[in-house]
Amino acid sequence: MIWSLLHIVDILLWVLMAGSAGYVIFFGIASLVKGKEKSGNSEISEKSENSSFLIIYPAYREDAVIRQSVATFLQQDYPTDRYRLVVVSDHMQAETNEWLAQQQLTLLQPTFEKSSKAKALQFAIDYVESHLQRSSTFTHVVILDADNVVASDFLHRLNEVCAQGYSAIQCHRTAKNANNDIAALDGISEEINNTLFRRAHNAIGLSSALIGSGMCFDYPWFRENVHQLTSAVEDRELEALLMKQNVFVKYESSIHVMDEKVSNQDNFQRQRLRWMTGQLQTLFLMLPYLPTAIRHGNVNYIDKTIQQMLIPRSILLVLTALLSVLITIVAPTWSIKWWCLLGALCAALLIAIPRALRTKALFGKLASLLLLVWRMLKNLIHIDRSNKEFIHTAHDK
To answer: Apex CA 211: angle with CA 205 and CA 215, to 5°?
Structure first.
């Protein structure tokens, strides 16, 4: 009787883990498909800069990084009359604001009772619409985080992709630092996400996932939808709105946005708590529309809803390994399916890691991975799907 119950628990656990692992495995294989990606062609490249960009940097207590990001961005080789840079300075120091005020940009200094990135974006759009006469000339809006650094041809290359008719574009966000194991693992995790949830999706005709920065949208669409954002994970809300409206998200892997990765355990834990809370909030946000999406065959919306149900990937990997060992000790014959699942999951993740990052040093970081997963598991008791307060991830000075 006891063994029968244990066997049922074993099967139920395997099915639970296999659901999330199967998703990763499927898109790991899909990433090997050569999609019909286009990053601009010579005919488009020779055209004049047609797009007019509004670039928004929401910056909450980002004194440590905002200057470098802005100074770098202002080196764009794009015509200055074809873009406007807006920095939303929220709770930043007077010295930082004085420096920003001297740059070629629009500085906004709102006073929010409870800050969030969504509020900063809404404030910026409201200001542009009411104070800038040229607001009607913007064709696209670009969202960058305060720590994001881009190349001087960023807007020029983005213009080429916009000219292909895409209304939503996710650029290739990649790590600009790997100063310790935590930052390196965070950067590898980002690249795995780029492979599975962006490049692989586009390769088989599905929309790319958004990532919170390095995002470009059709300006009229963004203006009409930005005030629907209510949570601390605005990128997931934007994604849900795009999928509901059948707007395809293009992933442009050739346009890099350098992003500073977290490099200490406390910041990592806060960041993952925000992501895990946001994932749960988004799931409950998307579920009510799911029957309609199924009825209308909205595959992208169904896919994004499924994504919110997935077990976080690092937790999935570690738990699958631990359960494989445990089941082997308890009942070796039951463990075969676990080891097969673990092997397939590891292979898919290895495929998803860019070749340049598949080094021997990667395996030396496994001990740090276990510690970070433990911190993520501790976050489970702090998740509150009704909490909409912004959880800030500080940057090291």
So the answer is: 80
Q: Are strands 168-175 and 149-150 parallel, antiparallel or unpaired?
A: unpaired
Instruction: Evaluate if residue 388 carries a pLDDT over 90.
Output: no
Instruction: Note the Cα 331 to chain centre separation in Å.
Output: 40
Token couple for 376: 């993520």
| Helices assigned H by DSSP within the chain | 2-30, 42-45, 66-73, 94-101, 117-131, 154-162, 181-193, 200-203, 219-225, 234-244, 265-286, 290-295, 299-309, 313-330, 335-352, 360-363, 366-379
DSSP-assigned beta bridge partners for residue 157: none
pLDDT in tens, 107-132: 999 988 888 899 999 999 999 998 87
Which residues on adjacent β-strands are paired with residue 141? 54, 217
CA distance linking residue 95 with residue 101, whole number of Å: 10
By three-state DSSP, how is residue 127 classified? Answer: helix
Tokens describing residue 223: 């203006």
What proportion of the chain, given as a percentage, has pLDDT over 70?
Answer: 81
Does residue 302 sit in helix, strand or coil? helix
Could you give phi then psi for residue 56, rounded to 5 degrees? -115, 125
* Nearest-angstrom CA–CA distance, 28 and 352: 6
pLDDT tens-digit series, residues 307-333: 999 988 878 888 898 899 899 998 899
CB 276 within 8 A of CB 377: no
Tell me the one-letter amino acid at 211.
I
Instruction: Give CA–CA dist 62/393, Å, rounded.
Output: 10
Q: Greater confidence, 3 or 20? A: 20
Question: For residue 196, what are the CA distances in angstroms to 71, 206, 277, 280?
Answer: 33, 11, 21, 20
Q: What are the backbone dihedrals phi and psi of residue 90, each rounded to the nearest 5 degrees, phi first?
A: -115, 110
**Spatial distance between the Cα atoms of 79 and 77, rounded to a whole number of angstroms:** 7
